[in-house]
Write a structure and sequence with these properties.
- The longest helix has 16 residues.
- The chain is built from four helices and seven strands, in the order E-E-E-H-E-H-E-H-E-E-H.
- The protein is an alpha/beta fold.
- Strands 3-5-4-6-7 form a five-stranded mixed β-sheet, with helices on both faces. The chain has a two-stranded antiparallel sheet with strand order 1-2.
């Protein structure tokens, strides 16, 4: 079983592994689910909903458009999300678009990665990092089995 967040309504959907390529629909709003695992942009309200309802780890990238290191790490997050689709939810929150959420979470620099699991923050780290390091970090902090091997 894999878990995918609906980009339209934000609900979490369980999808059988063998059905992922069948263009599954959201159980709530009937929109097609993005099963690629690509990072999804969110605001504070959508983030709260995702964290509260996700049975899988949620990795949030707090970033800004003007941030060079954020642009450097963006492809790493894309690879991580796509390589672990349905097992880890990768979200992106633009601190300039939602400064109140960044302030509430006490984000002091970007990029900052915050890992949530079981409805709560379990750890955070800042700066550019590799996919392999992020995967090890997520697995060790979220009590998950080791993720797929990567060549990053």
């Amino acid at each position: 079983m894999a878990i995918y967040r609906c980009g339209r309504c934000g609900s979490m959907n369980r999808v059988a592994d063998q059905r992922v390529k069948d263009r599954p629909l959201c159980g709530r709003c009937k929109a097609h689910l993005d099963t690629t695992g690509a990072p999804q942009p969110v605001d504070g309200a959508a983030l709260e909903q995702a964290v509260a309802s996700s049975p899988i780890p949620v990795l949030v990238d707090y970033w800004a458009t003007w941030c060079g290191p954020c642009r450097v790490v963006a492809p790493v997050l894309d690879e991580l999300g796509r390589g672990n689709a349905g097992k880890v939810l990768v979200l992106k929150l633009d601190i300039d678009a939602d400064g109140a959420e960044a302030e509430r979470r006490r984000i002091q620099g970007v990029p900052t990665f915050v890992l949530f699991h079981g409805g709560r923050e379990v750890d955070r780290r800042s700066g550019v990092t590799s996919r392999a390091d992020l995967e090890r970090w997520i697995a060790s902090r979220a009590g998950q089995p080791p993720m797929r091997a990567s060549h990053a």
